[in-house]
Specification:
Bound molecules: guanosine-5'-triphosphate
Strand content: 5-15%
Structural class: alpha/beta
Largest sheet: 6 strands, mixed
Number of strands: 9
Order of helices and strands: EEEHHEHEHEHHEHEEHHHHH
Helix content: 40-55%
Radius of gyration: 22 Å
Distance between the termini: 25 Å
Strand order of the largest sheet: 6-5-4-7-9-8
Length: 335
């Protein structure tokens, strides 16, 4: 629900009910003013998230196979004509690997924001504008149903076309273009490969860490794809990012505390302009008190789960992942 709907008029000005500091909405018809307020809400949210996560036990997840993958992948990347970097459209910043730029150098690159079905149109526009301004080629995709994959294969072939021009000039026979698919765990790499091939060649599952080995697959006679296990930094230095990875189910469940993560998700949802307090209250028939996520999760536990906070937390996380609060990104581009 739109936050502006919670506004009450006070001496000719609009005040938002339930905000931390009441924001001022002068006139709902003034859309640019409204948009800039919404943007400010997102900026505030990033700062808040930093404070909320500061005192938590650090979230770290680095399963054994990742170190081996990283080493092999760095070697294989040298053979690639083009690299397809897949990120989770809900958290494009938190699923960007800090070392990716240095590994790829000036290699040709396509950025895929997968899980496009899990964000709103406004989120999509915001990210499309941001990457267009940066001159980054971005494809929005859905690995589950295949949207965006035709465009992706066209773009990969077009970007790597120069390879065979050079080979011909040297008197060599043309060869298939090599494209490597890289990204964080569970962002949908294997699903995209399977959709591209229209066959289930790579195991895909709803939990991080399923792909364990690098795997070459052939797509027609023009394209070879390398599917790879998810990679993630050994230490996630940004704990706000780590918590968002947990919310989106992009890291192993054992690495975080459900109740902590769900409590922060509740606080975030109350502040995300398109969700707000009422979405939570309507769904669970429980009042949100003073934006406190922990109290909310505990009340839900008493209401539905015999006081078991863990189960209540899992319910909130699952509901978010299933889009029960609407399809929304947890990140907006930096300004
Ligand atoms: N809703 C939605 N689900 C998706 C999308 N792409 C993939 N999935 C689901 O997300 C889960 C993870 O997908 P995978 O393809 O296994 O992800 P991966 O990046 O290969 O995962 P790792 O093996 O951990 O590296 C699966 O249950 C997919 O069905 C998408 O665009 N939208």
């Amino acid at each position: 629900m739109h936050r502006a709907k919670m506004a009450v008029q006070l001496s000719g000005q609009w005040l938002i009910v339930g905000g931390k500091t009441p924001s001022l909405y002068v006139n709902e018809n003034s859309s640019s003013l409204y948009e800039s307020r919404v943007e400010n809400d997102w900026v505030d949210l990033d700062t808040d998230l930093y404070h909320w996560t500061k005192s938590l036990r650090p979230v770290q997840w680095y399963p054994g196979h990742i170190a081996k993958t990283e080493k092999e992948l760095k070697e294989q990347l040298k053979l690639m004509d083009v690299v397809i970097e897949v990120r989770d459209a809900r958290i494009p910043m938190s699923t960007s690997h800090p070392q990716m730029d240095s590994w790829l150098g000036n290699r040709k690159r396509i950025l895929v924001l997968n899980r496009e079905d899990m964000i709103s149109t406004a989120d999509r526009h915001a990210w499309a504008d941001y990457f267009a301004r940066q001159g980054t080629k971005v494809v929005f995709a859905n690995g589950q149903f295949g949207m965006g994959t035709m465009k992706l294969s066209r773009l990969a072939k077009a970007l790597a076309a120069g390879v065979n021009v050079k080979r011909r000039a040297k008197g060599l026979l043309p060869r298939a273009v090599r494209a490597g698919i890289v990204g964080y765990p569970n962002v949908g790499k294997s699903s995209l490969v399977n959709r591209l091939l229209k066959r289930r060649m790579c195991p895909a599952a709803p939990r991080p860490g399923v792909t364990r080995e690098l795997k070459w697959v052939r797509f027609g006679k023009d394209l070879e794809l390398l599917d790879s296990p998810g990679i993630i930094p050994m230490r996630i230095s940004d704990q706000s990012a780590a918590i968002k990875l947990a919310m989106c189910d992009d890291i192993g469940e054992r690495s975080y505390d459900f109740a902590d993560v769900a409590a922060i998700l509740v606080r975030m949802l109350t502040k995300i302009p398109s969700v707000g307090i009422e979405a939570l209250q309507n769904r669970y028939k429980i009042d949100v008190e003073g934006h406190c996520g922990k109290i909310f999760v505990h009340k839900l536990a008493l209401h539905l789960f015999n006081g078991d906070d863990n189960q209540a937390a899992f319910r909130v996380l699952t509901d978010f992942r299933k889009g029960k609060f609407g399809w929304i990104a947890l990140e907006r581009p930096p300004r």
